[in-house]
Amino acid sequence: MTNGLWGRDDELGVLDEVLAGPPERGGVLVVRGGAGIGKSSLLAAARAGATGRGIDTLSLVAVQAEFHMPFAAAHTLLGLLGSAEPLRGDENQFQVALALLAALTARAAERPLAVLVDDGQWMDTPSWEALAFVGRRLAADPVVLIVAMRDGPETSARLTALSFQELQVEPLSTADSAALLDALAPLLDAAQRARVLAEAAGNPLALGELAVAVTKAGPLLSAELPLTTRLERTFGLSIAELPAATRALLLVAALDDGDRLGEILAAAQGLVAAQGLVAAQGLGAGQGLGAGQGPGEGAGPGQGAGPGQGLGPGQGAGQGAGQGAGAGPGESAGSGLTGAPLTVADAEPAVNARLIDVDEQFVVRFRHPLVRSAIRQEAGLAQRQRAHAALADVISDPDRALSHRAAATIGPDDGLAAELDGLAGRLYRRGAAGAAAPVWERAAHLAGDAGRRASLLLRALEVTLEIADHERAGQISQEIAAADLPVEDQMVLQWLREVEVGGWSGAARLPGHLLAAERLHHAGRDDRALHVLHRVAVRCYFAHPSPELRAQLIGLLERLDLPPLTPRLVATIGLMDPVGRGAAVVERVEALLGRAGLTGMDLCELAAAATAVGALGAATRLAADGVALNRQDGNLISLTWALAYQAWAAVQLGDASLGRSAGAEADTLAAETRQRNYVVPNMLNWGHAEALRGDVEAARAMADQCERALISNGAHTMLCLVRVIRGVAALGAGRHAEAYEELDGIFDPGEAGYHPYVRFSVLAHLAEAALHCDRRKDAASRIAELERYDEIGPSPLLRVTMRCARAMLDGDEEAALESDLAPWPFERARLQLLYGGRLRRDQPAAARPLLRAAAATFDALGAKPWADRAHAELRATGETRRRDADAIDQLTPQELQVARLVAEGLSNKEIAGRLFLSPRTIGSHLYRIYPKLGVTSRTELAGVISRGLN
Fold first, then answer.
1. What's the CA gap between 777 and 443, in Å, rounded?
2. Quick one: angle between helices 776-792 and 796-810, nearest 10?
3. Strand 27-33 relative to strand 56-61, pairing
4. What distance lies between CA 816 and its chain's CA centroid?
5. Could you tell me which of 78, 338, 696, 766 has the fewest CB atoms within 10 Å of its CB?
């Protein structure tokens, strides 16, 4: 035995190792195992160990009754931390996460801190997501987070895709079990001892509770039952012995999502009164609810309650006297049925029976979660219904009361369904999608009208898919009868079911969405019609719909009675017809640039449209503004989109540095926010950036992974982006023939990777490859194919790449350089490199300025292969340049972000706020950055970054 625990030396060693981290480092440990296996005891040992090391501790117990109360646990933890800035009540889970991170790191700055969370599987979903977000950012801070979780589907689902260290707590060995049992129950005879050891199977809680049960009740419960069930029933035996009023109090406490004794007593009084009324009406005056049933039970009309009768969870009205365990001699049959108010004294029997604790603030806690579940299991449906109704009558918070009213209502009840719909909407707007979805489900089940029920279930399905709970989404989807929905919502259901299975229908279902939007337009619901079409705008961009279908989609969009500068309208038109309406979209985007009042979502959508039509300068600005605004608002979902569009525009401009950092952060956030639809697009952008910077191995690995995912999903038209990665990587590596073949596949309608618009962004790459593999004539024909697009709707991107491609093929880079290419630095530098390389042979002095400019630009963009060639040409003229970019290239994407922000003059605290990290983590990054760049101060770092990236 160590630290009062039998057989837990290994587990205590792991805890000690985790607690040894502060103050140098922090971390997260998940302690998981079955019910009663000793997780709480290990947390108690961790608390003692932390105190011995001078580490402050905070303890939090998640409560199953609060599972559907969004941010309940987070609010409690913030209160324990003494957060100086209380939440307003309308924050999403990421804003709450940032508040938690700030409070934790501020507290730990004074003294190392250990946060101990028990029963983490019952923490409400928004709080869990916030805590997981924080946990991923604690490595550099003196904060240890230890979470105990019971094994089961809730725990498995929550830990999926998380990389937290786990400690699996196994049953005790035979020897340790025997030693513990002897300490707990030394008077058991040999047969009893052997039976308890066999049935407890190394579970410490079972050893103690089953020993008590065999001592009091003789033979144990059937060993064929699961251990958890047997333990629940042993607790049930203790509960059945309690006075009637105490049992009523326990049932209310088990169903309550609060923990205040006053509230529980008030609701229990209502339950007692309700049960008394039922007894009086159904059985005759004086009759109660028996706690036990057995042979010879059954009361006749008018029969009075005898000694031993009382209120018992789970018993139906009319169970007879004599066999029920309840009130003892001298106790009123059904104490509380007379209307006498319940008091603190009614809780004392449950405290004495070690079922609950009540502290000095009159907060009620169950000694073990199985006590709560035992009470719920034993209670009958009618009793639970009455208990929820009693709680609804006494709870002042309208949302909490509404939840209990819903639990007490069989339905249908359209008024209650409408109230729940409103509650779900409020939860969703706060970012608590995980809490909102089941409320919409409950509202649906209370709705009397089939169409209303289907619409509410559709909303629940939509939100459940947002949080990536695909198993539950499948169950909800099966409940929805499509015929009960209007046609437009049937199209939405089709779309969601497609998302549910992860498929790709290309252009096949676009006519259905067009029909749905047409119906909405004719019904005067133009906002909803735009929403339906915007859902499929990106798909339309990649799906190659027929010209007729595209014209119909655009025609409807232009008929909608909406202001022309509505951001979503502009974005949808740009993605659906980037050539035919490209010029108009560019004009509208320019008009919206800098307009006050645009939301983070508006900026994201406009950035996507600007990129689609080739207005990459505007796209870059819109994406940057979107990133900044969403960071400020703490909206990580739309921040993921803004970063994805920032990376998309950056790589098309040849900016490997920005594309890599934005793509990497978007990839991380997509995983954290469970936006699986963004995982492959983010990787495509990131892979393109790695190709530009010359990391061929990384680029190929990402291209291969994306190719497998796209083929599996049936999204073959997006393979064009895989070809881009491979083609650019081959071009940077000097494998020009390979590069040409890959890129040319994007121009060939017969190839899987063909795409009419992606051709615009790779045309100059194709021309460069053609120069070195004798394919000039073929490349010239590809340029000619695109001339008609330039005539239909001039794309800024196409116009520049055509000009540069022609100049390269014709050897007339000088003329092209006379035009304004400042917004297109990569293309300008490429022309400078080619022109300077030719001049260098005869006029080295004239070549130097061109090559110097090209080298500086490629260094700043992180396009290392092209920078290497520019520096090689420059050396051939007799000049060498210091290359800070070589050192910068060693930085990870996040280190590069930190270095850039240091160069802007931001403090560690300001950088931490932008990147959702702690100031200490920023300091750790700088500790690694300095030696990589050969600097010792922020001033020197800023100089290196300035020279290397500007």
1. 66
2. 150
3. unpaired
4. 48
5. 338
Distance CA 125, CA 107 (A): 24
Exposed/middle/buried for 463, CB within 10 Å: 0-12, 13-18, 19+?
A: buried
Say whether pLDDT at 307 is over 50.
no
Residue 355 within a domain:
yes
Q: What is the pLDDT of residues 344-365, one digit of tens each?
A: 999 999 998 888 889 888 888 8
Residues 875, 892 share a domain: no
217 neighbors 237 (Cβ within 8 angstroms): yes
Q: Which amino acid is at 723?
A: R
831 with 722, same domain: the answer is yes
Give 568-591 pLDDT, tens digit per residue: 999 999 999 999 999 999 999 999
Phi and psi at 146, nearest 5°, equal -115, 120
* Burial class of residue 488 in the structure, from the number of CB atoms within 10 Å of its CB (0-12 exposed, 13-18 middle, 19+ buried): buried
Q: Where are the alpha helices (DSSP H) in 83-189?
A: 93-110, 125-135, 153-159, 174-184
- The Cα 328–Cα 208 span in angstroms is 27
Report the number of distinct structural domains present in the chain: 5
Which two tokens mark 878?
A: 């007799």
Structural domain contains residue 370? yes
Instruction: Please state, in angstroms and rounded to a whole number, the distance separating the CA atoms of residues 129 and 432.
Output: 10
Which of 441, 434, 440, 438 has its CA nearest to residue 422? 440
Domain span at residue 265 reads: 238-286+308-399
Helix, strand, coil tally for the chain in percent (to 5): 65, 5, 30
Phi, psi dihedrals of residue 881, rounded to the nearest 5°: -125, 145
pLDDT at 294: 34
- Residue 794 gets which letter from DSSP? -
